[in-house]
Design a protein that fits this description.
By secondary structure, the protein is an alpha/beta fold. The protein has helices at 2-6, 8-20, 25-42, 44-57, 63-82, 84-89, 92-98, 104-112, 127-135, 150-161, 174-183, 216-224, 258-275; strands at residues 99-102, 117-120, 141-144, 167-170, 188-190, 201-206, 209-214, 227-235, 242-246. The strands form two sheets. It has a seven-stranded mixed beta sheet, sandwiched between helices. It has a two-stranded antiparallel ribbon with strand order 6-7. Helix 3 packs across helix 5. 36% of the residues are buried.
């Protein structure tokens, strides 16, 4: 009973998302935007993180423009929060209409040729929408980090596994099983751009800042002889939904120089972020881990 009571706020949130998922996106989107702007005002610690990230990443912009970018980011975050119910309960046909796909043939050509594939997915706010749409196209392997909140964990797992035959690997068991799954023909939906501390990370530039970056992408690509395909989800204005794009496979990757490969990955992600900076997950402390002797930034 105590646990159920403690979980009541999460259960109420899930109930609200279930009710909202019946709304058309033309109504759900402005509600989400309004929620995001409310969060921008209410959650000062995360607003401060976003301001710090944008100041470091876009020093050429004035403070007013960076503030506008921060507000747009929070509005987009609010949208993806309220629209998450679609991932959990909307029928397949509705999601196929809401999330358009470009470049699917590139992945299918690689798989048909027997080439393992890594879908390199940067942390844009539409990431989960894109991930669910990917599972409607392919049986994939991905890494799943369990959430402390049991209620949210249950529904997140449900949303990522409800279509097809998906293999969700715990983070601590991921390497060998993931490589095996890729070699068996499962694309690997991989998110390589968060600060996981010094372990298995090196410092390379990201928006001109030396940034702790995990080396997993070139290591996985080398172990599986896999092609790396950028996989980007763009949130479209108003009720237009989302667009999932599979880019051209990277050439000459990995090169054998781990530092050069990780630096290239960051440069490729940075170029994508610059096309829609208000949709990148700047609420994360991307520059938290610093090289020895450098002061903390947050």
């Amino acid at each position: 009973m105590k646990r159920w009571v403690a979980e009541l706020p999460s259960r109420m949130l899930v109930a609200v998302l279930w009710l909202l998922h019946w709304l058309p996106l033309s109504l759900l989107a402005p509600l989400g935007n309004a929620l995001g702007l409310l969060l921008y005002v209410a959650i000062f610690p995360r607003r401060r993180v976003v301001r710090t990230n944008l100041r470091l990443a876009f020093p050429e912009l004035g403070q007013t423009e960076r503030e506008r970018m921060a507000r747009r980011l929070f509005a987009n975050l609010g949208r993806t929060l309220l629209e998450r119910g679609l991932l959990w309960w909307a029928p397949r046909a509705r999601l196929e209409r809401l999330i358009r796909v470009e470049g699917e043939e590139r992945v299918r050509a690689l798989l048909a040729a027997g080439r393992p594939v890594i879908l390199m997915a940067p942390h844009f706010v539409g990431l989960d929408m894109g991930g669910t749409r990917v599972t409607m196209l392919f049986d994939i392997v991905s890494i799943y980090a369990r959430q402390r909140n049991r209620v949210i964990d249950r529904w997140l797992y449900h949303g990522r596994s409800r279509f097809g035959d998906q293999l969700l690997q715990p983070r601590h068991e991921s390497i060998r099983a993931t490589v095996k799954a890729m070699k068996a023909g499962r694309p690997f939906y991989y998110l390589p751009d968060m600060d996981h501390g010094r372990k298995e990370s090196i410092f390379v530039p990201f928006f001109g800042v030396q940034t702790a970056t995990i080396t997993g992408l070139p290591r996985f690509a080398r172990m599986a002889d896999a092609a790396v395909v950028p996989c980007v989800t763009r949130l479209l204005p108003g009720g237009a939904g989302y667009r999932l794009s599979f880019g051209e496979p990277w050439e000459n990757f990995p090169s054998g120089d781990i530092e050069a490969d990780v630096a290239r990955m960051n440069a490729e992600i940075e170029a994508l972020v610059r096309t829609m900076p208000e949709q990148y997950y700047w609420v994360h402390k991307r520059f938290k881990t610093r090289p020895d002797g450098e002061p903390r930034l947050y």
